[in-house]
Amino acid sequence: MHLPGRTFHLRSIRAIALAAPAVAAVLLLTTTTAYANVAITQVSSDPYTDAQAQHRTEVEPDTFRFGSTIVSAFQVGRVFGGGSSNIGWATSTNGGTTWIRGFLPGITTNAGGTYLQASDPSVAFDARHNVWLISSLALNGSRVDVLTSRSTNGGTTWGNPIVTATGSLDKNWIVCDNTATSPFYGNCYTQYDITSGNQIRMRRSTNGGLNWGSALSPSGGATGLGGQPVVRPNGTVLVPYRATNAAQIRSFRSIDGGVSWRATVLVSSISHHTVAGGLRESPLPSAEIDAAGRAYVAWADCRFRSGCARNDIVVSESTSETTWAAPYRVPIDSTGSTVDHFVPGIGVDRSTSGGSARLGVTYYFYPNSSCSAATCQLNVGFISSTNGGTTWSARTQIAGPMSLSWLPSTSQGRMFGDYISTSVRSGANAYPIIPVATAPSGSTFNLAMYVPTGGLAITGGARAATTTGTAPARAGTAVPVTAN
Q: What is the CATH number of domain 6-464?
């Protein structure tokens, strides 16, 4: 059944938050922080009870901001073999002050649909057609389709989904051209890959996601997953992705509004350390763009650590539509530290650019990378820059520590998400939606979605980014055939 939206008012994580009527009150949550105390507000909770899933779990959030509205989407009720009971959403229409939440109708059998599971949500807004969009995967055995759900009232209610692509597909993403002066204003673009061979495809909509054009591939082909398209003010679409046939981040583009897609170019090689504890994690890119059209791509990389012993968060910035600068290390801590950083979500204030660009990066980390499944301590951190990534603030711990046993299991390890996201309000704070766990209650998990109360300040600071690595490039764990 479809559960109606419900408002979540601001409160500390130390307060009890109300979930769906059929779900008991969320347990009190207290955190032990290494850096700073950050109050966080619960914005959703898993209400489902279907036997296929591990309840109560919510994983893998994306966010998008336009004006004072922030919309997030995430998996609800993670299933071991892939996907979840449904896709949840949480929306703030007042800049993050209060939130309402619900669950998408018409996808899974839990909410009036025909599919068994749903996965990989991604959020976009189409300013020309005034419609919010959530792209997701819908699973029925080996059949995995890409769907698009639409909201025409500010992300507060959602209609049944539009079938965007069919087959055996994976790792979809969606973006729209919101620059009124762009020749392709109002075009929306969905990226996904075909599971067999990870062949990347693109589709275009010109009417707010109601209809989608033919599947197109980049000139010369591209194999990979985790592509995150971004749109420059001139209408060019850049699509950074992780290549499966090489330890690389690559990118391709369209200069004609998605009519055709050009050949791929190298962003950077990847040097990646497989994180401890059997945690599900890989160096998928997180991409954003500033007001001048400069793209920023972040991922977990160990090139700055002797022996590739642990990961930092690194960022590569585009210097043109086809060239990228060498990645720099975000200076969260020293290269001699024991900290392992991974799964970044980069956010950019899209009213700023260049040397004045305001950046925020949310990430997960182990304080000590030498740990096991029983001893690893999972935490969430945040760091910011006010000068386009030249220097950075001190780190802030948002949540944790969490034990890995508090996370649901998948065929690829314990999971909080293959990706996360950060949205930055113009001239104001950053808003990541993050999965935060406490100890299970018997066989029932306590993993839900939270937002830092009032957002996180973009302060910047004097910690300088560095661009000289020490470790030779090497790949970590191979990209799985499917990552839904």
A: 2.120.10.10
